[in-house]
Write a structure and sequence with these properties.
about 130 residues; alpha+beta; three-stranded antiparallel β-sheet; two-stranded antiparallel ribbon; 5 helices; about 45% helix
């Protein structure tokens, strides 16, 4: 965290680098300028760490897009059936692929199958 130190009526902006060593961001006439420069120098010296996100998982759960192809590969199917399942899975993935598999509910299926339907309509009125 950036800080300042006063010396002879002037202010030195201080920050810590990535190794934890205290560094100077320069000397300024006001404390506000010194603190601002130190904050900027600290942000440059310690860029945010990027976290690699696994697109196949959402909140630790497998997504529909990751699960569907594995499920099809695990089934004993004829070639034409496998192709049909693959096309169907592509349609499902297009609509629900980003959702966690456990979070998919009946309303999501209705919205996928019946374009223009809303989740609040009773099922009897949709069919």
């Amino acid at each position: 965290m950036a800080s300042t130190r006063e010396r002879n009526g002037r202010f030195t902006g201080l920050y810590r680098d990535a190794q934890g060593k205290q560094r100077s961001a320069g000397t300024f006439a006001s404390e506000r300028e010194a603190l601002r420069a130190a904050g900027h120098a600290e942000a440059v010296a310690n860029p945010p760490k990027t976290i690699e996100v696994d697109p196949a998982r959402k909140r630790g759960k497998a997504t529909v897009a990751a699960y569907a192809p594995r499920w099809i590969d695990g089934q004993l199917l004829e070639k034409t059936s496998r192709e049909t399942y693959g096309r169907t899975a592509d349609q499902i993935i297009r609509h629900l692929g980003a959702m966690a598999r456990e979070d998919v509910g009946p309303d999501d299926i209705c919205l996928m199958c019946l374009p223009g339907a809303t989740a609040v309509e009773p099922i009897g009125r949709l069919i």
